[in-house]
Amino acid sequence: MNILKIDICPLCGKSRFEKVMICTDHYATGEPFEIFRCKDCGFMFTQNAPDENVIGRYYESPDYISHSDTHKGLMNKVYHGVRQVMLSRKAKLIRHNCDTSRGKLLDIGTGTGYFPHFMAGKGWEVSAIEKSQQARTFAKEHFNLDVKGPEALDAFPPQSFDVITLWHVMEHLQNLNETWERLSVILKERGVLIIAVPNPSSFDARHYKEFWGAYDVPRHLWHFTPSVMQQFGAKHGFKLSGLHPMPFDAFYVSMLSEKYLGRRCTFLSGMFTGLKAWFASLAKKERSSSMIYVFRKK
């Protein structure tokens, strides 16, 4: 089978599902994909997505910025500008949550390598994993980073890292529970696990509905609300020690969503909605477009 059909909820193990909406793959193929929700725990997922052995072609677009590093278009220029700000914010977040200032860090789904390169400059001993050969080559040529393929995750000894980060990666990983289990093994007992994912209960997700850019089907297999993410952590022996909004994401995602709607002046209209989403997240951080979750072992 070349599709990922979910018969049992990866979170609660039940099998009572309801269809939430149909979204379109706006990046690569124009194909429709259905998003379902578990009636028992609320976990949302993309049903009948391509299996990991064939999903590669859905990433094969010059506009897929985390792999190509493209600067083409105004939206991608905004992305790069925001990324520079976020690199510093991520480093500050790690500094405030970690017991060491220069330990061992693993970045999973590192893309073109900007984050591990930045952290290496802060004195960290970095390791990085990325599925895309194109992105790994970019990281080697531009930052001299020896980024490993996904198979490297199973090769690390137990308790190898002080910090493990997944910045907008968990939603892509097919073997969800197996990944959580492996993270628990290779993270040190006093280590920190940091996961950033889009938030389908955010202001902008509710505003754009099936056109919300961060559903990004079929590349995004899973759609984590704050409640669901906390449940996943608890299931695998982690406790949530911090929850942080990523309000900048709302601007980029809103511009994408406006583009998918076929609107004119996508930059201005996206900025306007992003601003409203920003204020919504100030009132209640759980409404932020994306969320950062800081976990520690129980």
Structure at a glance:
By secondary structure, the protein is an alpha/beta fold.
Explain this structure to me?
The mean pLDDT is 93. The chain has a six-stranded mixed sheet, with helices on both faces. A four-stranded antiparallel sheet has the order 2-3-4-10, with no helix packed on it. It has helices at residues 65-68, 74-97, 114-120, 133-143, 176-186, 203-208, 226-235, 249-260, 266-283; strands at 3-4, 17-24, 32-38, 44-47, 49-50, 104-108, 125-129, 161-167, 187-198, 222-223, 238-245, 290-297. It has 298 residues and is an alpha/beta fold. The radius of gyration is 18 Å and the shape is globular. The protein has nine helices and twelve strands. Helix 8 packs across helix 9 (266-283). Strand 8 (161-167), helix 5 (176-186) and strand 9 (187-198) form a beta-alpha-beta unit.
Break the fold down into its secondary structure elements and pairings.
Elements: E1 3-4, E2 17-24, E3 32-38, E4 44-47, E5 49-50, H1 65-68, H2 74-97, E6 104-108, H3 114-120, E7 125-129, H4 133-143, E8 161-167, H5 176-186, E9 187-198, H6 203-208, E10 222-223, H7 226-235, E11 238-245, H8 249-260, H9 266-283, E12 290-297
Parallel strand pairs: 6-7, 6-8, 8-9
Antiparallel strand pairs: 1-5, 2-3, 3-4, 4-10, 9-12, 11-12
Helix pairs in contact: 8-9
